[in-house]
Amino acid sequence: MSLRTASLLLAAGLFGTAQAQEMPAPTFVAGDTWSYRETDLLTRQETGRLTETVVKADAAEYWIDARRKVTRTWWRGDAVKRVHREQFEFSEGGAEQRGKTVATNDAGCAYPWPLKVGQSWECTEMTTWPNGWKIKYDVKFTVEAAEKVETPAGSFDTLRLVGKGFSANETNGSGARQERVVWLAPAAKREVRHEIRSVLKNGNIFRAEGRELVEFKPGA
User: Of the residues 28, 121, 130, 218, which has the maximum number of CB atoms within 10 A of its CB?
Assistant: First the structure.
């Protein structure tokens, strides 16, 4: 191998590594579809399947049809911040089959795109869950590493994000420690895996949810 060839190969390798260290803001288009398998992290048992499909998207917002085995809802997302903002129940008689609002968030913890390895930020987000609980999240995120992960949908180059913080339930006065690990893949435009744990003050685990991508179909 010549010195020039070796130099070119080294440069190509470094370029590939550099590319893997950053993820630009994704752009959703109509037809983008993600199917996920959800699990209980404690038992490793499957708890459900979720399929989300972008049905409309423009510069300001996007609409997602979210379906589980026995439920169906809609999400209205902020196309600038790339985050789901408002959830609607499915309604046969509603405009475009969208019924009343069942959950909202203020996008306080939307990712500050583009994301880079080593980047950290703190955020606060207010969320209203479908059961009416109002939850305040205070979280510090760090983009810890570029990492290749295997999923049922295939192998992806990802950025691994770790979020640690606390949640305060303003409805019933309870609180919990939050731990999140998210693997974001540019090729899939979103997370291909995540793990979320909520630990109560008494040490009991309130939530231990896992999700991994089983299929991604890009839109037109």
Answer: 28
